[in-house]
Every structure is written in structure tokens, then in C-alpha cells.
Amino acid sequence: MSQETKKEVNIIIISDSAGDTAFNNAIAAAAQFPDAQVNYRRYPFITDKNKLDNVFEEIEQYSNLIIIYSLVKDEMQIPVIRFVREHKVQSVDILSPAIESLQKVTGMRPLEKIGAQHKMNQHYFDRISAMEFAVMYDDGKDPKGFLEADVVLLGVSRTSKTPLSLFLANKNLKVANLPLVPDTHIPKEIYKINPKKIIGLTNDLSVLNEIRRQRMISYGLNPNTTYSNTDSIKAELDSAKKLYDKLGCFVINVAHRSIEETAALIMNHLGIEEQ
User: Is 167 exposed, middle or buried (0-12, 13-18, 19+ CB in 10 A)?
Assistant: First the structure.
């Protein structure tokens, strides 16, 4: 398997409920691997074996699978375990270890009640909607998302736009992001947004250079390319700064900052308390 093939990971989220627990765990873990191309494929409300079989049939086409599952009933877990063994893929069982520990300590049997941990209130549904919004409007896929977003993230390549979008979505914020490339058209919608909603992400030249060089090496490619060239990176950062100055937006240098730290700065800027 080539380095380039290894670089892309397909995380499969299977749950008999909404799958938030499994999805949030996946996001938190993936944030530690910013150079990986992580694709999230969610399969919520898988409550019977027919639905589970349909999931298996669909995900067989994907390579580099990691299955993260949150299934209460043993009868639903067993087919997943069987699929994992037969296809030799990685898997994470979210619920069973905690349930087994509680069962041993309490001496009680679990309810095996699907969705017992969820309160289906408006806050819950807003968070689900925010997650879907972040995926839909990632990487500037649809400019109309900028006008509907609570937060718009701008930044050159490798400034953590996507993991930050998903982290903020888990805080009930609708986030859209736009990658910045010099001399490319900036959607007119960006100029119609309240500047306070726009966050300009930047990075130190040396840090960005090293991140991009390592990214090329991990793909098995020559690290000395235009993408990782210091003059090119400086031009990108300068171009982004000019845009930020023009917009009058809040700017954060993400160098040496975790996703959580950057998110906290954004929420403080917006006057939003932790939820």
C-alpha cells in the first residue's frame, strides 16, 4: 500500500441512535492527525439487521476503513465484529467497555435501551443541524453558506479550518470555511457578512513550511515544491493578511495552538459561553 493511499482514511460511524458520541470521538481523534485526509461517513439510527447489512454492502467499496460503532444491543454488535474480522479493518466499540464496567461494579444488567442517553430537546437538534451544516459548507463548497453561517473561517491551506469547523459545530455553531489561494476569486458573499462573524486564520511561516513539507513526504512526494516553498507560503500569508485587513475581521495565529484553544478564542470574540 503506497503512502498516498494510506493518507486517506474513511471513518465509518455506525449507531443505533444519532451517533453523536461516536462522531465526536472520531473528530477529537482525527484532530491529532491534521495531515491525514479523513472522510466521515455517518450511518445513524441503524436499528435492525437489514439496515446494518445495507451499511456493510455500501462501505465495502471504501479503503482504509475505521469503523466506530455505538450499538446497545449484542445482536447488532456481533455482525459488526464479524465484518471487522472478515475484512481485517480497524474498529472502535464506544459503548461496551463502559457498560461492562458499570455492570461489574453495580451487579445490574443494562437496559439495552436505544438512545437512553439523549434528551431530544431543541439544543440537541440544533447541534445535529450545525454538524450537517459544517460538512455541507466545508471548503467553500457553496457560497450561500457564508450568509447563513454563525461563523466563517478563512485561511490558507493547513490552518485547521475543517477540524475547527467541526469542533465549533459541536458547540451548536453553524460554521462555513473558505480556503484562500492567492489570485483566486473571493466570493462576493464574503463581503456581505458582518465582519465580526469572520475569523481569519494564519500561521507562522516556519511552522507552515514544516507542516507542508511533512505532508508531501507522507505522500511519498518531493517536499521541495511550490506548495511548501517559503517564498510561496509568504505570498499566501501576505495575500491573506491583505484580505483580513480589508474585511476588518478578527485574526488568530493557529501556530502552536490546539483546536480547543483556537475555538475558545473564537467563542470569546463572539461573546458566546461554553455549552
Answer: buried
